Amino acid sequence: MPASWRLPLAGDPGGGEPCAAARKIDDVSSTYAADVFRFAVLALQREGARRLNAALAPLGLTASQAEALRVLDRFGPLTVGEVGRHLVCESGSPSRLTSTLADRGLVARGESEADRRVLVLSLTDEGKRLADGVAEIEAEYLDAVSSRMPDAEALGALATMLAQAVDDPQLKHALSKRFPDIVASE
Fold it and tell me: What confidence score (pLDDT) does residue 22 get?
């Protein structure tokens, strides 16, 4: 963060307008810094969702569908429950999400080799093709984000801190599945 970036003092009586007296972010209260951090993360998430959804539109995919395809591409075959435990974006029903993908011919349902009573999901050839397209779109987006944050070491430290700050057990588990070197599963 540039040293010249300045934030208003916590408790500014100006009704949210920047006050005349400002300090560097290093000097503000940790509560105020946490508030700025929270809203910056939310803003980045909204910006990222808009950009990703716009980029995925030509593929006919939502961000949740794209995430499910990428999970199956990287970790599959998986049961519906396992897919759900890997998802971060989708808060609804993984069975509905994967059913939609199956109905579109992107995911195949089959029997588990270990237990024929268990249904497992895997990508079809078309699902794999779209998963590869999603990977390219994500890489372009991540390159754009990282170009605005050229200090790779600071970006890595920030990513680690963010991942470790997640308290929700289900989300923490999903992150630990994808990034076991950064997030410990509980």
Answer: 42
